[in-house]
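ZP: hey, is the S-adenosyl-L-homocysteine complex queued? I don't see it on the tracker
AM: it wasn't, my bad. submitting now with these inputs:
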Amino acid sequence: MARAILSLTHKEIEAWCLEMGEKRFRADQIRRWLFENRATSFDAMLDLPRGLRQKLKESFSLFAAEVVAHQVASDLTEKLLLKMPGGDTVECVLMREPDRRTICISTQVGCAMGCVFCASGMLGLKRNLDREEMLEQILRLDRLLGDEERLTNIVVMGIGEPLQNLPTLLPVLDDVTDPKGLGLSPRRITISTVGLPAKILELAAVGKPYNLAVSLHAPTDQLRDELVPVNDKIGVAAILEATDEYFATSGRRVTFEYVLLGGLNDHPSHAHQLAALLKSRNAHVNLIPMNRVETLEFEEPSASRTLEFVSILETRGVAATVRKRKGADIDAACGQLRLKVTAIDDPSLEVV
Ligand code: SAH
């Protein structure tokens, strides 16, 4: 099978060009077609000599995955399910708002974190995604945009725990932020983590102003241990210490995600406890009304509980917003589409 061209770094494409007896600047042209000009085939790379285009076609695939599902929601959110050559499936999403085009990408096949309300971890972790598999999500979603639309934000919030795949993710983000790549500012990229303190420090040390979002979901260890099982080896205090360091080094205000699960973590007392943890910090809370996952019994929070939660946080000086639901009619919560398709492929899994 042909190698995925996206598995090569720019330097490697340059080396390949030289090996083929071509000039080094051809690599710049190829990069422009891949990142800026949204080429969908090597034939479309019209300013390359015909012979080089032919060699590219013989040596590489431009996109390696098969699009097994492409859904468009009534709010114009689009979701792709990509089947990688080895058969693994990967989900990614494009969200449209009046002044933004945000994509959400996955970093792993499955997830090892086991958060009890999340569809992504239900089948466990299979493996990390490779460089080309992450780039393919980004570039395919970018190609769903119209000529007049530009990608403005990336959230690394799809399936998987991004900080467990940092050595692959960071070079991908370097390509995305490179002015000769997609040219997106690191300030428009958000990495969402379950909260792995050592990895948060590692990310801080990289020294790029990426936004960090931490999936806290509970103000106490007792409750967090129940909802986010990996917490029993970590603890809320260690996470906050690491996020303080992240803020100090990057200058970026940290976001704390909090999925509201009706009757479990949405009581006013939880809001007060959360406010106590965060009020002295430069933090922002993003409340996420739970997306229902079939086969899981968690309840959505009531509208009044949600509003009360926000109002307690705000009254106590903690900035809070409620996340808008996007793509509600297309298996919105990340992980659900893959879960469905994987279950269909494997009848032993009882998921509808
Ligand atoms: N592993 C990373 C990134 C992927 S999950 C993390 O934990 O942050 C992205 C976000 O979606 C997390 O905040 C996660 O807790 C949330 N999420 C997972 N399942 C959900 C559901 N059923 N409803 C709403 N949000 C959910």
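AM: back. The chain is about 35% helix and 20% strand.
ZP: great, adding it to the tracker
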